[in-house]
# Entry
Amino acid sequence: MGKYKDGYYIQLPRKIFNDYDYETIPANSRWIYTVMCELEHKFTGKNEDFFFRSDEDLARDCGVSVSTIARYKKPLIKNGLVEHWNTHFRDPKTKRLSEKKVSAYRIL
# Structure
């Protein structure tokens, strides 16, 4: 994320907006992708190139419903813009997996 004048901005690849290969991606998917790019900057560090969000968290981040997230993240995955897998958190002390399943995302 960079700073410009009195605010911040994120960089997005132009291909999501004007590349022929991605012209069929729905506007809702493009919005989810934009938010996911922001989340990648927010939650990844030097050691990780992916971040975790439940569908409920991602829906809240995007200002849409969980069903909208489920429907419109599929084109992002299908078109190779986002990698997705389900996982559980592991407690570092007990080594037990959490009950809550979360989604891991990597922006490609």
